Backbone:
């Protein structure tokens, strides 16, 4: 069974830069997995940030960027703001049309 | 602007079938190269992809749920539906519907609906 791995938690100072990663329990993440990233605050639906590795969803500020770093997908937030404090989920698209969510990263801005 | 809205019973008895519908507004469910998907989230836990359907009727399901899941589409009503059979308390969750692009990106999302499995 494929497991998508994310850091359980991360913290960043206001104005700072943080990179969250999305890996595979076995193997490397590449653009072929079309990694996407979502932001979710408590009680709200997820918000699409990045899809197809690099593409920002409409209305998403360019403080958010996606990339491949080494063998993982990455979400970088620059100039962190208080309202960036959320849960962040990545999704990988596997073969046969199946998607798998990572366990999510709880980001604290302090 | 496309919007999605989930609807269905908020309470389902154990061993019964959970049925939800997602109504798409602001655009045709048949336009564009989109899939239509279901995602769920138990309280305090992460998101879990359940499956998706293309308007042709082609489906993909989470292998861990495949034996119990059926997703269908009704293009005349601009809706797609989820059925999950033989539910247990472990199926209690907020269920979201979402549009899924050809490269995996999911959105927009519905607001979510809480389904509780309990007698």
Residues:
């Amino acid at each position: 069974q494929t497991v998508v791995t994310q850091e359980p938690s991360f913290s960043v100072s206001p104005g700072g830069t943080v990179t969250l990663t999305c890996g595979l329990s076995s193997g490397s993440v590449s653009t072929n997995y079309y990694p996407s990233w979502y932001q979710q605050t408590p009680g709200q639906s997820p918000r699409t940030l990045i899809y197809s590795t690099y593409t920002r969803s409409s209305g998403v500020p360019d403080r958010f960027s996606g990339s491949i770093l080494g063998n993982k997908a990455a979400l970088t937030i620059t100039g962190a703001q208080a309202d960036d404090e959320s849960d962040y989920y990545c999704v990988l698209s596997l073969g046969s049309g199946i998607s798998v969510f990572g366990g999510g990263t709880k980001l604290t801005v302090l | 602007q496309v919007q999605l809205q989930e609807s269905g019973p908020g309470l389902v008895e154990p061993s019964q079938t959970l049925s939800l519908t997602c109504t798409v507004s602001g655009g045709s469910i048949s336009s564009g190269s989109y899939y239509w998907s279901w995602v769920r989230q138990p309280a305090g836990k992460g998101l879990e992809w359940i499956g998706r359907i293309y308007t042709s009727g082609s489906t993909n399901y989470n292998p861990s749920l495949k034996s119990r899941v059926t997703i269908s589409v009704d293009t005349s009503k601009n809706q797609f539906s989820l059925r999950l059979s033989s539910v247990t308390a472990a199926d209690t969750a907020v269920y979201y519907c979402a549009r899924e692009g050809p490269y995996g990106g999911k959105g927009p999302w519905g607001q979510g609906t809480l389904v509780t499995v309990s007698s």
